[in-house]
TrEMBL record:
Organism lineage string: Bacteria, Pseudomonadati, Pseudomonadota, Alphaproteobacteria, Rhodospirillales
UniProt key word ATP-binding: yes
Superkingdom of origin organism: Bacteria
InterPro entries found in the cross-reference section: AAA+_ATPase, ABC_ATPase_HisP-typ, ABC_transporter-like_ATP-bd, ABC_transporter-like_CS, MetN_ABC_transporter-like, P-loop_NTPase
Annotated family: Belongs to the ABC transporter superfamily.
Alphabetized GO MF terms: ABC-type amino acid transporter activity; ATP binding; ATP hydrolysis activity
Residue span(s) of domain ABC transporter: 15-249
Transmembrane segments: none
Protein name: ABC transporter ATP-binding protein
């Protein structure tokens, strides 16, 4: 393993980011970010609050625009005036810290909505797919309930199932366990580990370092809008090269 593996050479590229810069007004939130992700790679992104982690992954499914650089997802160019937003959203699933389930829909309806509306899948097929993924996240018995009737861990597993119902090629996770009570973290991480083992391409913003060690191909450390350091997990944790990485790891480990 090279000291700073940028892209795994044996995998086709699925995300290519080069020279990406973004501003919120006068504030530059992303500074010349370069990142290449191979199909099936598992990437963990960590770094202090406000370092641009969410903004970076939100750019990858076009929830944010950017001003400079290039960003291509499975051959879809996201710089072309926003016209490819729908195409990229169909390929990229996203799971947020706050679940973002529709409160007035049942678990099953939450999972059926996007396939029916966006993909024009028929109702019975959408239901079949929803039950398949609810079974995969091990809560098929909760299908008829409303989100508020579920625990946080169950709600987050519904959010994962809902994203999978669109059969994405890439899954983005933005601190998926940060809003959970400690006893519910494991059930969500176990679901994510299962996805990783099935070969899903995943970018996970998380500070769950046990998860990073277990499943990540690469760990990326961001600070002040830049990728400061990246490496395979063992080298990243055991021998961080940059002073800012060392200081950050010293605070969280
Ligand atoms: P992280 O996820 O690493 O905590 P974010 O990407 O959420 O960081 O935010 C990076 C910086 O950009 C923060 O300083 C944040 O306040 C700022 N920021 C994020 N979203 C907006 C926005 N919509 N408008 C203005 N500033 C924002
Ligand atoms: Mg964030």
């Amino acid at each position: 393993m090279p000291a700073n593996p940028s892209a795994a050479p044996d995998r086709p590229e699925i995300i290519s980011i080069a020279g990406l810069s973004k501003w919120f007004g006068p504030f530059q939130v992303l500074k010349n970010v370069d990142l290449t992700v191979g199909a099936g790679e598992r990437i963990v992104i960590c770094g202090p609050s406000g370092s641009g982690k969410s903004t970076l992954i939100r750019c990858i499914n076009s929830l944010e625009r950017y001003e400079q650089g290039t960003l291509t997802v499975d051959g879809i160019d996201l710089g072309a005036g926003g016209k490819n937003v729908e195409a990229v959203r169909a390929e990229v699933g996203m799971v947020f810290q706050q679940f973002n389930l529709f409160p007035h829909l049942t678990v099953l309806e939450n999972c059926m909505l996007a396939p029916m509306k966006v993909r024009r899948v028929g109702k019975s097929k959408a239901e079949e797919t929803a039950m398949k993924y609810l079974t995969r996240v091990r809560i098929p018995d909760q299908a008829g309930k409303y989100p508020a009737q579920l625990s946080g861990g169950q709600q987050q597993r519904v959010a994962i199932a809902r994203a999978l119902c669109m059969t994405p090629k890439i899954m983005l996770f933005d601190e998926p366990t940060s809003a959970l009570d400690p006893e519910m973290v494991k059930e969500v991480l176990d679901t994510m580990i299962g996805l990783a083992n099935d070969g899903m391409t995943m970018l996970c913003v998380t500070h769950e370092m046990g998860f990073a060690r277990q499943v990540a191909d690469r760990v990326i450390f961001m600070d002040r809008g830049e990728i400061v350091e990246e490496n395979a997990p063992q080298a990243f944790f055991d021998d961080p090269q940059n002073e800012r990485t060392r200081s950050f790891l010293g605070q969280i480990l």
